[in-house]
Amino acid sequence: MMARARLIGETRTAARFTLHDLGRCPAMTAGGATAVCGLLYEADGPTMIAIDAYECHPRFFRRQAIELEDGSMAVAYLVAPGRVRGFPAIAAGDWRLRFRPRPRIRATILV
Predict the structure, then answer these.
(1) What is the domain partition of the chain in residue ranges?
(2) Taking the complete model, does pTM exceed 0.85, yes or no?
(3) Which of 40, 52, 54, 111 makes an SS bond possible with 11, Cβ 3.0 to 4.6 Å?
C-alpha cells in the first residue's frame, strides 16, 4: 500500500497523545502527554484513499491533522478514547519497542 509513498523519515508527535496496544496493531488517542514515535510519509491521493479504507476511516480510525514535536503538522489516524478502554497504554510511545526481544533472566534456585 505504501509503495507509491515517499518515506520522509522518523518523527515524533508533540507530547499530547497516548499510544495503546490493541494486540495486532497500535491505536493513538488525543489528550495524553506522550510523544508518539512513527514514520512520516508523503502520499498521493490514491494512496491516501487506500489507507483510509485500510484504517476504516472514518468509522474506526479518523484521519486528522496533528502537531509534530518540531511544530510542523502531519496527518495521523486516531481513535476515540472510548474505543481503547481496557487496552494497555504504551508508555514509551513507540510501537516498535513492543517487538524488541526482552532480555532473558537466568533463574537461580537455592535449595
Answers:
(1) 6-99
(2) no
(3) 40
